[in-house]
């Protein structure tokens, strides 16, 4: 009897697993912009190999050319893509939010691109991952997928070029002002729970330099500083500063 009971329970578990898989794929279908451009065989191979992953804030998802994680699609959460210098300084290239996709985590599928990027979860995040080899095979077969891949890669390189322009031509006070305003927009509040070290990592600067800049902002009445928190007091003046 016990053995028969185990078989029944195992069968129920198998059906439940299949049900969860079907729900996962259905959700993915609604979010993956190329789904309707795929043929039946391509849809099946993605469905059979699709990975779902939940990562906690601070988790490193992809780490340079040592990894070829695959195509990432953010179901919910927030990721940060950054590069790391030989001295250990970080600078954020771009961030990913709900329904955003990242291809640099699968740059190994494109021989001409060798990009040493790290991808970290800035918040608890739910992900879908199409393994690199699966996506590469479909990209070779499907012109819409290949075209979309090129467009996505071009968009990311545009983000990088914009960042380079900011570093080269924009003073640090303007970049800090822009970052603070971007954070208030993302978080939906003027009270930012963020450290000076985190801002320095985003902007490719040193913590001490960011601290001096923020203290200057505080002296000008733009922000209020407290331990682990920055309160934006005058967003209009910050907007004026970033545009000047």
From TrEMBL:
Cystine bridges: 68-108
Gene3D superfamilies for this protein: Jelly Rolls, Winged helix-like DNA-binding domain superfamily/Winged helix DNA-binding domain
Alphabetized Pfam families for the sequence: cNMP_binding, HTH_Crp_2
Record key words, sorted: DNA-binding, Transcription, Transcription regulation
UniProt key word NADP: no
Domain HTH crp-type: 170-236
SUPFAM superfamilies: cAMP-binding domain-like, Winged helix' DNA-binding domain
GO MF, any single term: DNA binding
Keyword DNA-binding: yes
Protein name: Cyclic nucleotide-binding domain protein
Natural source organism: Blautia obeum ATCC 29174
């Amino acid at each position: 009897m016990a053995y028969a009971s185990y078989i029944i329970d195992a069968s129920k578990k198998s059906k439940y697993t299949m049900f969860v898989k079907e729900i996962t794929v259905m959700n993915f279908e609604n979010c993956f912009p190329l789904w309707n451009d795929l043929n039946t065989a391509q849809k099946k191979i993605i469905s059979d190999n699709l990975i779902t992953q939940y990562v906690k804030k601070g988790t490193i998802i992809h780490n340079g050319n040592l990894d070829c994680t695959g195509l990432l699609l953010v179901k919910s959460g927030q990721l940060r893509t950054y590069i790391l210098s030989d001295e250990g300084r970080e600078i954020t290239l771009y961030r990913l939010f709900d329904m955003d996709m990242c291809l640099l985590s699968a740059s190994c599928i494109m021989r001409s691109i060798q990009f040493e990027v790290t991808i970290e979860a800035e918040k608890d995040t739910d992900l879908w991952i199409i393994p690199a080899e699966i996506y590469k095979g479909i990209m070779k077969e499907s012109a819409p997928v290949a075209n979309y891949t090129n467009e996505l890669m071009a968009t990311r390189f545009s983000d990088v070029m914009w960042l380079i322009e900011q570093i080269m031509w924009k003073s640090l006070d303007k970049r800090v002002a822009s970052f603070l305003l971007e954070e208030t927009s993302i978080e939906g509040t003027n009270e930012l729970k963020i450290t000076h070290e985190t801002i320095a990592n985003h902007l490719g600067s040193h913590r001490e330099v960011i601290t001096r800049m923020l203290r200057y902002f505080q002296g000008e009445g733009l922000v209020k500083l407290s331990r682990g928190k920055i309160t934006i007091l005058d967003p209009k003046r910050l907007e004026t500063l970033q545009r000047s």
